[in-house]
Amino acid sequence: MKKKIIMGCLVLTLSTMATSVSADALKYKNLPARDLVWDGQQAKVTDVPVVIMDGRTLIPVYLLRAFGYSVSSDGNKVVVTSEDSKYEVAIGIVHSFENFLEEVTVYDQLLLTTSMEMEEEEETPEEKMKFVSSEWEAILRNYDEKVKLLNQLHVNFETNRSVFKESDKMIDAFRQTTAAWFTYAKERTKESKRIFLKEIQEAHSCTRQTQQAVDEIFNKSMVRMDH
Fold it and tell me: How far is 37 from 67, CA to CA, in rounded Å?
C-alpha cells in the first residue's frame, strides 16, 4: 500500500525550473556538511547539505530517497511517497495488542469474580486455583510470543517502544496480583484480601497506561497514512 506523507515539518524551498542543482550546491558550498540520520539510518550528503539556519533545520528532500522514498512535486507541495511497511507494522502492533488487552481484561475479571466467590467457600478452591494458574500461563505465553515477533520486526519508533515499556509494567503488576490472589485463596483472611484488591487496582492502572500507548500508535499512524 502506498502512503503519501506531506512533509509539512520540513523547511522546503522550491526553486524555479531554471535553477540547477549545481547552482544550489555552490550556494551552500562553504557551509558545514551534515548527514541526515532518519530512524537510525544515515544518508550521506552529495550536493546540497543539511543546513541549520536561524534556529531552523533545512533538509534537502533528495536525501529522503536514501530511505526508500520517492519525491515529487504536487502544485506548491512536495510529496514523499513510500512503499515502506513501517506504518503497516505500527497498525499490526495496534491490532495485536488490542487483542492481547482483551485477553488481559478477561483474566482480570476472572480474578475478581473468583475472589468474590471464595468469600462463600470454606475449603481451599483447588479447581479454581488450577484454572487461574492455567489462564495465567496462557497470558504469559501469548505475551512472550508478541515480544518475540515485534523484536523480529526491528521496530525502531520510540512511540512503539512505549508499548513494550507499559505492557511490561502491566505484566509485572498482574504477576503480583496473581500471587496475591493465590495467597488469598489459601489463607482467606481480610488482610490477604486487602492486599489482593490493592494489587489489582495497580494492575488496572498499568492496563490503562498500556491502552493509552496503543492508542497513541494508532492515532499517529492514522495521521501519517493517506489511503
Answer: 10
Q: Whole domain around residue 28: which residue ranges?
A: 3-82
First to last CA, the chain: 8
Contact in structure between 156 and 39 (CB atoms under 8 Å): yes
DSSP 63: G
Which class for 169: exposed (0-12), middle (13-18), buried (19 or more C-beta within 10 A)?
A: middle
* Domain termination residue (choose one: 82, 111, 140): 82
Set of cell numbers at residue 224:
501519517
- Give pTM, 2 decimals: 0.59
DSSP E strands in the chain: the ranges are: 3-6, 36-38, 41-43, 51-53, 56-58, 69-74, 77-82
Q: What is the mean pLDDT of residues 200-219?
A: 88
Give yes or no: residues 132 and 189 share one domain: yes
pLDDT in tens, 50-103: 766 665 666 766 666 666 566 776 666 666 665 555 555 566 666 778 888 999
